[in-house]
Structure formats: C-alpha cells, structure tokens
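Continuing the series of single-chain predictions for the mutant panel. This is the parent chain; the variants come on the following pages.
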Amino acid sequence: MEEALIEMYRAGVSVRRVEDITQALWGTRVSASTVSDLNQKIYKQIEEWRQQPLVGDFPYVFLDGIWLKRSWGGEVKNVSVLVAIGVAQSGYRQILAVSEGSKEDKASWTEFLRGLKDRGLKGVDLFVSDKCFGLIDNLADFYPEAKWQRCVVHFYRNVWTAVPTGKVREVAAMLKAIHAQEDAQAARQKAEQVVAKLRAMKLSKAADIVENGMDETLSYYSFPSEHWRCLRTNNPLERLMREIRRRTRVVGAFPDGNSALMLVAARLRHVASTKWGTKRYLQMNRLAEIVAIA
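Parent structure:
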C-alpha cells in the first residue's frame, strides 16, 4: 500500500485524488499528512537522482525555468525551478538537472551551470534556450566552445510585441519563411528582405528586433538538417514544463521552495522512466560525420 501511494505521487496524482482513490480501493481515506509522511521516504532517492554524475557526452542541451508559488512569512511569493535536459551521443534524452533558483537571474544560472559542470556535463555542441537574463554570459564562461541557439518561438513572440494585432499573422508568415530556408546564408538574405519589408510597413521597432536578434536564431543550421526541427526551438523542454504546470496547478502555493523542487523532480524522474526517456529521440550518426569533417 505504501509503495502504491508513493508511485501515485511520482506519477503526478494530487494528494486530494490519492485520498479519493484509497477510499475507493480500500474503504479507508488516507489523510494528506499520511501521504506527506510517505513522500519523505522518496525525497532521499530524489536527491540522489538529482546529484548523480553525468556520464558520456551530451551534444545538445536545452535549458529553461518555471515559476511556482510558495508561502513565505505569511505571503505568497514566486520561486523558480531551473531544468536542463540533454540529448546524449546515443540519441536518447535525459533529465540532466533540476534545481531551485531564487529567480531566473545571473546568480541562479551561475550556480546551476556550475552544478552541471561539477557533475560531469561535457561534449556540449549546442545549448538551446530563451534569451534568459544572466544565462547567455554564463554559458560562455562555463562552455566557451559550445554554440547557443535562441528559441525561435520566443523570438517570434518578442517581435510580435512590436506589431499591431491585425498584422501579427502576416508578420508571423514572414518570420517563418526565414527559418524555412535551405541554409544559414539563405536565411540571412531572407531576413534582410523581411527587415526591409517591415520598415516599409512602418514597423521600425519590429524591424530592429529582427535585425539585431536574427543571428541568434540561426545556430541550428550548423548541425545536421535532420535535427533542425528539434533544435531551433525549446519545445522539447516546453512540453515537460507544461506537464509540470499541470501537476503543480492543483497544489497552489507550496509551503517552501524545497517542497516545490521535490515535486517537480519526482515528476520529471517518473517521466524519464517512461517512453520519453527510453525511446531514441535523434539519430546522431550525421552529427558525428559533421564533427569528423570539421
């Protein structure tokens, strides 16, 4: 019975739902405090999983953070949980790190990346993320030889903030055309045309955003074309973040940051043991060929 309760927690079942399930199965409603006491048994396992050494090379690494609520001195405040997933040389995905950050700032990202480095993260060719404050400079400090790919979806959203609602669809089609080109040179030429058209449409602010930030979104062109769809956005990690939000939404505000971290880590550990982590995500042979030629 204890093992069943713990597995329900790992799988993302809310405490309230666990109470209903135990009532239906055994005729006895297990209290929230009992479930919480049982969860303490897996916290040690989760911490060991979080701190395990990273073995092998991870050519592709995706980084992002999620904001959750926690109670603090009678007030509800924000806490960030930073997450990294990687695609190993074997082509399988792996949860690399889950850590609490005071916020998504330079100090938090510095500590997060230092932890990855200390645990053995190596062989990184490309980092994929949004343009998080404090993250980009830190990447250069810890992994100077790795390229950085700015998520094109987040980039599009930045451009749309400077576009009237009635013209968003038209501008979106223009931006997508840039990243539909056959190589980086063609993409840059297309970007120049888009910038000129935006200025002709009297959207100078949007044109400036595209002109100044476009190169940050084209790093994926340096890698096998078979991988482009998976590398130009942070979608592989965004899907996990949506799952975390689904699981944490029923909690509301956590009593402390560690409780938030443990629930997120438990859910990610469960996901990693499913088809998500046991099915090959990318064929990495072409990457090895490109590296050998370079």
